[in-house]
Amino acid sequence: MFPPRSRRPLRRQISCRTRREIRRVSKDSKLRRSAIGTVILSIALLSVWRATAQAPASSTPAASVSADKSSIPRLPDGHPDLQGLWHNDSGYQAMMKNMRSGKGLAVALADFHADGFPLPLPYLPEADRVREYRKLHDAYHDPEGHCHVPGVPRETEQPSSLMPFEIIQDEKYVVILYEYVHDVRIIPQDGSSHPKRYWAWDGDSRGHWEGDTFVVDVSNFNGRSWLDMEGNFVDENEHVVERYTLTSRDAIDYTALVEDPTVFTRPWTIHLTLTRNPAKDQIVYYDCHEGERDVQHYTQSEGNKANKHE
Amino acid sequence: MSKRGYFTPAIVALVLASGGVAALGRNADSFSPPTLSDGTPDFRGIWQARTSAYLNIEGDPGGAKSVVVDPPDGKIPYRPDALKQRDKNFQNRASADPAKNCFQAGVPRTVFLPKPFQIVQSVGHLAIVYTEDHAYRIVLPSSIPHDDGIDFFMGDSRSRWEGNTLVVDVTDLGDQTWLDAAGNYHSDQLHVVERYTMLGPDTMRYEATMDDPTVYARPWTVRLLLYRDKTPGARIEEDECIDGEDGVWHHVPPTDPRALRRHDFKAELAAAAKSQ
Asked: Which helix (H) or strand (E) holds A41?
C-alpha cells in the first residue's frame, strides 16, 4: 500500500527550513555565508564550552530528583529562580552524536530524539497506522514545515541546542520565550483552572509549585500538533504534566508526562536535562513564516497537490 | 472574520478618543507607579490601545484623529518620492499589506493594534508579549549594545529609565513591515525611540519617535494612550494563523471552534488509501 521509505520527502522539507532559517538573518549572499559560518561556529564554540563545563548527570529518575537546596538561586517568594537562558542539553548531546557519526548538519538537527524520548511510543493500532502514513507520505504536513509553533512537549524536546529559550518569572507567572518561531507560553501560577472553550497549538498551561518543583498542567490542545518530523503525533485529547526542577544553578531536570487516551495505550514520559546558556548569550529572533518567499505554496491546497506528485 | 474583528474596536476607539485626548498632555507626569523590589517602576500587566491608528496613523476624513503629534499638522513628513510609494501602498493595500500574511507587525504598529499585549517584568528582566502573531520583544538594558547588521521583524530593543519613563531604543527593523493598514511605511533605516509613562494605575502614555532619513524629511512622533485590561482572568490568547484551503492565512482565535481539529483516524486512513 505504501511506497518504500526512501521516497519520503523529508530531506526536501529540511532544506526548505534551513534556507528559511538562513534568510531570516541575512539579505545578501555575503551575509548568508556568514550566517552559515555562525551556525557552524556556534556548534564549535558550544562544544568547547560544553567540554569545559560540568556535565550534569541526566539519568536520575524524575521522582528522586532533589536539589542541593543551598546552591540554587531563589526569588523573594522563596521559590527557585528559573530565570535565564536555557537549552535542551540532552538534545544537544544526541545531535553531536549524530554529527560525529557523519550525518550532515540538517539531518543531525532533525532526524533524532534525545535519549530521554521513549521510542517507539505506545500507539493504539489505528493511531499507529496514521503515524506510519504520515511518516511515509505526509511529511509535508508536519506543522513545523509551515512555521507553526511546535506544541508541548516538542518545543522543549526537539533539538533546541542552537535555539534556546528564556524564562522570566515573578510571583504570578512563569513566562517561557522560545527562540524557535517566537513561540511563547505565559504560565499563570495562581491556582486557576483551564478554560472551557479554548483550543491552542500550545494548549493552555497552568502552573503550581510542589516543593521546589514547578509543575505545569497543559491541556486544551487543538489536535494539530506533531511530535517530530517522523509522523509521531498527538490529537486534541493530549494532556501533559511538565516538571521543572532546578538541580543546580545551571541545570534543570525536566520531565513531561504525556497522555492521550485516543492515541496511546498508556501515558509515557520524556526526561531531559536543560542547561543554562553562557551569560553572554541572548535570544536571536526567529522570523520563520515571515522569511518564507513562497507562502502561497505552504497552504493546505497546494500541499495536497504536492503530495500527489510524490 | 478578521475584518469583522477589527471593525468593532474601531467604533469603540472613536467613542473613547474624545475622553482620552485630555490626558495625553506631556505635563501630567505626577503619578508615581508601583515598583518592583529594586525600585524599578512596575509596568506589569495586560495593556491595549483604543485608537483607530492601526487603520491609519494619520486618521481619516470620517473623524478619526491623527495620532501624529509632531509635526502639528498630524501628517507623516514623507520625502516627495516616499509619499508616492505610500500612495501606491494604499492603492494595493488589500494584497500588499504584510500583515495580511500573518507576519509580525513590527514596531510601532504592533503596539496600537486592537489586540492586547502583556508587559512581563522582574528585577533585571523585561519582555513584551503581543497577542498578534505571538510576537515578543525581549527588552535588554541599553548597557548591552544593539546587534549589528541583522534585521528582525520586531527589531532589536534596548531600554533605560528616565525617571518613571521607560525609554526603548529600537533598531534593526527591516523594510518589510508597515506602520498601519493604510500603506504608511518605513525603510530598513528606521530608528524608533519609544517612551512609556504611566499616568495612573491603569493608564499609560505611549510615545514613539520615528527617524528614517531615506523616507521621512524629518523625525516625527506619535502619542496615544494604553489602557490596562482589568478583566478578571484576562490573558494573552495564542494567535497562530492557520493556512487555509483558499491559499490565504487566517487568524483563528483559540476560542473559535474552527481552531479545534478533532481526530478522525478512520477518515484520514481512508483518504490516504484513496490518494495512493
From this structure: helix A29-52
